[in-house]
Design a protein that fits this description.
alpha/beta; 6-stranded parallel beta sheet; 18 helices; binds nicotinamide-adenine-dinucleotide; binds uridine-5'-diphosphate-glucuronic acid
Length: 475
């Protein structure tokens, strides 16, 4: 079986499905890769001749898509045809937190995964290996299997095997993560299916980095990995708050503890709180599972990682208000960065959403800049229309202003007459800002709030600006 894989498909052309399949197609020219989705706009964007219009912004991705697309990489909405012709089907659809019903607010909503399983059951022909690429609660493979087996029994035409192959890529570095992964994890029971998938990865991943486990360990390892990473961020952000109160500097503390090889130096950057579509969702899922199995103390332990993150984001809003004399009503504030991290256009669960909402609630007029996020997305995230009129008229400080926001492509305009600049995403261009020029445009006393610790302190202070830097209590 392992030598025969020629056609694979992936259901879900999102932040995981698109880049992952592009890399597989690029590394395995003999395999035809079909990426399918129900979202026509997304598929059209993946097929766009203008590679800057791909639906996912990832450094290195356009080059790979250009090389493989229409050779052995295809994007379409033909889900039925893709499943029918594939020996392997990756399920890479979204698994958001449930909004209502049992487990609302914590459990993962598996309706898209179940829909995929039913489509695979209906359209597959011959022997099909179904691969969980989405992040799923432990024992989801059981659900997928039972749907597939039901069909297998009645038709007898198709047979199935289910594997878990969670994805560990980070947005912004997805291509490098996919091309040089720390490990590839494959969980399953059937040796032939495991070998077939391992063979695909072994085209570019060293064999010792391809780990095999049982299927439940694989599902749980993915949730655990995200929980451990998020826990590190809440830990360093908690210590950062303590640094600000005690005269310590979180960067120095991180360097000091990171040299202990048992702790390690990566993932210790204090910031505005973790965002992204997965950390919060996956920890809440772990909390839900733990409670489900009666492990309340385990659930409480992980829940605190999320509650500390929420507290931390609101703490930053409070720091801003406090330093701007206790009121920001009618004050112009420039927000630099809306994406949940640099090098991505993704805003899902971005810390910027909570922080901007807090500031608008306090009456601030936000001028928001981000090199890759557009105003429509921000409008959706803030559940509030953009007030374009505040941009087109000469801005005046009026205390009667209701909180509002507008998108501003030009940082010069965004900082003109502003009382404060808040850096929320660590885009490289923000670390190169000429603070002398910015200072001249701002209303004084003027503040820089650097939640990513990317500015040079001496340059900001020399420009006659006041500075708050996350976790830096040395002022
Ligand atoms: P996404 O929302 O960007 O993409 C999911 C896609 O699936 C959407 O385009 C949607 O239209 C499509 N879809 C949903 N139901 C469908 C159906 N029945 N048929 C066809 N298409 C369907 O999500 P994502 O960020 O790519 O995440 C996908 C999964 O991967 C999630 O479980 C997530 O937890 C996990 N994951 C995400 C990342 C990441 O960095 N984003 C990393 C690792 C794992
Ligand atoms: C994370 C994991 O790193 C991936 O391994 C995993 O595959 C993915 O989630 C997923 O399952 O979705 P991602 O969310 O894309 O990847 O990005 P990260 O680099 O992990 O950053 C997450 C958040 O933590 C961002 O808001 C980032 O700014 C923040 N962060 C990260 C910090 O505040 N400090 C750090 O030191 C690192």
């Amino acid at each position: 079986m392992e030598n025969l894989i020629k056609n694979i498909c992936c259901i879900g052309a999102g932040y995981v499905g698109g880049p992952t399949m592009a890399v597989i197609a690029d590394k395995c020219p003999n395999i035809k890769v079909n990426v399918v989705d129900i979202n026509v706009d997304r598929i059209n964007a993946w097929n766009s001749d203008d590679l800057s219009k791909l639906p996912v912004f990832e450094p290195g991705l356009p080059k790979i898509v250009k090389r493989a697309r229409k050779k052995n990489l295809f994007f379409s909405c033909d889900i039925k045809g893709a499943i029918k012709n594939s020996q392997m089907v990756f399920i890479s659809v979204n698994t958001p937190t449930k909004k209502k019903g049992i487990g609302a607010g914590q459990a993962s909503d598996l309706k898209y995964v179940e829909a995929c399983a039913r489509q695979v059951a209906k359209y597959a022909s011959g022997h099909t290996i179904v691969i969980e690429k989405s992040t799923l609660p432990v024992r989801t493979a059981e659900v997928i299997k039972s749907i597939l087996e039901e069909y297998q029994d009645t038709s007898g035409e198709a047979t199935f095997e289910v594997l878990s192959n969670p994805e560990f890529l980070s947005e912004g570095s997805a291509i490098d993560d996919l091309e040089n992964p720390d490990r590839v994890l494959i969980g399953g029971q059937n040796d032939s299916a495991i070998q077939a998938l391992s063979k695909i990865y072994s085209n570019w991943v060293p064999k010792n980095k391809i780990l095999h486990t049982n299927i439940w360990s694989s599902e749980l390892a993915k949730l655990t990995s995200n929980a451990f990473l998020a826990q590190r961020i809440s830990s360093i952000n908690a210590i950062g708050a303590l640094c600000e109160s005690t005269g310590a500097d979180v960067k120095e503390v991180a360097r000091a503890i990171g040299t202990d090889t048992r702790i390690g130096s990566r993932f210790l950057d204090s910031g505005p709180g973790f965002g992204g579509s997965c950390f919060k969702k996956d920890i809440l899922n772990l909390v839900y599972l733990s409670r489900h199995f009666g492990l309340n103390e385990v659930a409480n332990f992980w829940e605190v990682v999320v509650s500390l993150n929420n507290w931390h984001q609101h703490r930053i809003s409070k720091v801003v208000v406090k330093n701007l004399f206790g009121t920001i009503t009618g004050k112009k504030i420039c927000i630099l960065g809306f994406a949940f991290k640099a090098n991505t256009n993704d805003t899902r669960d971005s810390a910027a959403i909570n922080i901007c909402k807090d500031l608008i609630e306090e009456g601030a007029i936000l001028f928001i800049h981000d090199p890759k996020v557009n105003s429509n997305q921000i409008s959706k995230d803030l559940s509030m229309d953009e007030s374009k009129n505040i941009k087109n008229t000469e801005y005046k400080h009026l205390s009667s202003y209701e909180g509002s926001w507008c998108f501003e492509e030009n940082i010069d305009n965004a900082t003109h007459n502003a009382d404060a600049v808040i850096i929320l995403t660590e885009w490289e261009e923000y670390s190169k800002i000429n603070w002398n020029l910015v200072s001249k445009r701002m209303r004084h006393p003027a503040w820089v709030f650097d939640s990513r610790s990317i500015v040079k302190k001496n340059e900001v202070l020399a420009a006659n600006l006041k500075l708050w830097k996350i976790g830096d209590g040395t002022n």
